[in-house]
């Protein structure tokens, strides 16, 4: 099938649809089997809960304050899932699973004309089975949506550049995707794609394409029509405070100085990208070497490869220069790298290129050693830091087995079977993480259990929340109700001012319970409801109920119930 054929064969559509459905099933299966992971997931979830409670899906708020971290689009996506499945991990995450499957489908559909059906299908499979896809498309964060929208924006522009007959449609799709990306994460949604496009056209000496054929006069109004209304609405409603905080604190501030301790060396993203794209990233050095051997043709004859390289390099370089570093910041660089990998794999499949045996050996040895390192780290090193984790010796076995089987197959030149072996190993590892390890870690996050305890006691009755010397956003999400805030004590002397007719549920490190009790007025009774180990802070956390006792309640030191006059609890 010619890569330039505009007709889409029924067989190709059936394959694309099957991969889409299987991918959605893979990303969404049992996606609610663990509680929300601190910090990001419960912050966004709690903000949505408070927006719903106040009937305002325009202004992001958190703990009764403006939350300028991200714009509104991902909240609206999570809201759709919540409407369908409820305010729980299932409802909050299902949108990301769907977005992940849509990304795979779009890659397949968009690349068929650019590269042909085999490369398009292979790119979708590589993207779906990468390690980071298992994680990111099962999380309630804005990153999956941005990854999809940036991919649509840049690939649509590339298609418009090469195919004049579909130029108008693809350019408008690109402008719309950049507008939605701006609604999802802010200026990065159009600044970086715009930079990539401009640098590409400059290197091709065709910058005039922007104003001669780029539909700027209609594309920019379309962009503003989609992106601007919400920014104006939130600005008017908050007297432009949200907009100022978002631009200067969350964008310029994050680039200029690290936030929340998210720092890293200059090679941070080289490592995180390699690990996130496993197992396929083990072949990236060979892919880049192969491209380097034909670098003279990049500018003149291979515009597609040049565009993909610029896409990945500019995105990673930009965030390398940023002071704040997180692996999710460079997810948008993954699709062009997967495309380049698929092109290289297809050359081998059709015998247009034969990889050097030592290169194959090095790549597969790297994967085997990484699998071995995972098992060693999880079995002997990690327990020294976190002894409460479940046994994880088998975590590296899928990569080790896949590397060994693929090595044997590649020696016999069974390339397709070798790729299948690696993909199967990746899926097995993902399944092991999702269905075995993560559920076993879930009890080490006590916020959900604490929330259930509070709900069982209080029912529909009013209460308050407070924290001392410990807090995770998941506690507010699971322990709170609607737009209920939590009071963060900076001194135990503030405790008395919070106490009233309603029970107060206070969470603190277990070793601080005696100090909390000593600060509790004698007219109140403190009950330790539960104590559990918490994985993030590596300590035991206690949940206390502080309330005025019933007149019939007496001293019961063994059960932990206070006498109203004693102010003590054993």
Describe the structure.
It holds the Pfam family PMT_2. It is found in: Cell membrane. GO terms for molecular function: pentosyltransferase activity. It is a multi-pass membrane protein. It is built from 24 helices and 7 strands. It has helices at about 10-30, 40-55, 75-85, 90-115, 115-130, 130-135, 145-160, 165-185, 190-205, 210, 215-235, 240-255, 270-275, 285-290, 300, 305-320, 335-350, 355-385, 395-410, 415-440, 445-460, 475-480, 495-500, 515-520; strands at about 60, 65, 465-470, 485-490, 505-510, 525-535, 540-545. It is globular, with a radius of gyration of 27 Å. It has about 575 residues and is of the alpha/beta class. It folds into 3 domains: about 10-245 and about 250-355, no CATH class; about 355-445, no CATH class; about 445-545, 3-Layer(aba) Sandwich (D-Maltodextrin-Binding Protein, domain 2). Strands 4-3-5-7-6 form a 5-stranded mixed beta sheet, covered by helices on one side.
How are the SSEs ordered, and which strands pair?
Blueprint (H helix, E strand, L loop, with lengths): L9 H19 L11 H14 L7 E2 L2 E2 L6 H13 L3 H27 L1 H13 L1 H6 L6 H20 L4 H19 L2 H16 L5 H4 L3 H22 L3 H16 L11 H9 L7 H9 L5 H4 L1 H19 L12 H16 L7 H29 L11 H15 L3 H27 L5 H12 L5 E5 L4 H7 L6 E4 L5 H4 L5 E6 L3 H6 L6 E10 L4 E9 L23
Parallel strand pairs: 3-4, 3-5
Antiparallel strand pairs: 1-2, 5-7, 6-7
Helix pairs in contact: 1-4, 1-5, 2-3, 2-22, 3-4, 4-5, 4-7, 5-17, 7-8, 8-9, 8-11, 9-16, 16-17, 18-19, 19-20, 21-22
